[in-house]
């Protein structure tokens, strides 16, 4: 059921993302949120032409090959990440302009370059869903009011890019034909991407 929901969400988010990129580049007005979030998780925020993101690869969120469950050594950081995301969204909700500037926050799942496209797309979605499960746990623990709960969860979406976006330095990116390498641990990752929009439209 969660995978079906993920696919539906991905289709909707793709539409949102196109609209967002047409209107605003980079972090925009949501940069303060991303700076605070990146400090909380202890990972640098990256501002590209069309998105702000924090990439959490093997050193922080370790996934075994063909697995969506976090390794035991990464469980605590998964909870920390979810807490940071929820708490920063709750904090941002008190600043109407900042909260409105966050069009959506995507939990993006990725895989290495081994295996077929369909399988890796599903695996990436499952990895993102694992992190979303931590987010749901934090929301429950925080006891948010129904309105705030809806506002926070309404900003979060799950996407999967499977094996289509290897990290620039990974063997998968260096070998486009994917023939020489059995796997690339760093590509088995999750990224948190904040898509911004202009406020006061």
Keywords:
201 residues; alpha+beta; 60s Ribosomal Protein L30, Chain: A; 5-stranded mixed sheet; 47% helix; globular
Q: Would you kindly provide a written description of the structure presented here, covering whatever features stand out?
A:
- α1 (about 1-25) packs across α5, α2 (about 30-40) packs antiparallel against α3 and α3 (about 75-90) crosses α5.
- Strands 1-2-5-3-4 form a 5-stranded mixed sheet, sandwiched between helices.
- It is globular.
- The chain has one domain (about 1-170, about 180-195): 60s Ribosomal Protein L30, Chain: A (2-Layer Sandwich), CATH 3.30.1330.
- Helices cover about 45% and strands about 15% of the residues.
- By secondary structure, it is of the alpha+beta class.
- The chain has helices at about 1-25, 30-40, 75-90, 95-100, 115-140, 145-155, 170-175; strands at about 45, 50-55, 100-110, 155-160, 190-195.
- The protein has 7 helices and 5 strands; from the N terminus they run ααββααβααβαβ.
- The model is unreliable at about 1-25 (pLDDT under 50).
| Count of runs of 4 or more consecutive helical residues | 7
Stated plainly, the CATH topology is called 60s Ribosomal Protein L30, Chain: A
Tell me the span between the first and last alpha carbons. Answer: 36 Å
Basic shape: globular
Given helix and strand content, the structural type is alpha+beta
Low-pLDDT residue spans: 1-24
Overall CATH class: Alpha Beta
Percentage of residues in helical conformation: 40-55%
Topology:
Blueprint: H1 2-23, H2 31-41, E1 46-47, E2 52-56, H3 75-92, H4 96-101, E3 102-110, H5 117-142, H6 146-153, E4 156-162, H7 171-174, E5 190-196
Parallel strand pairs: 3-4
Antiparallel strand pairs: 1-2, 2-5, 3-5
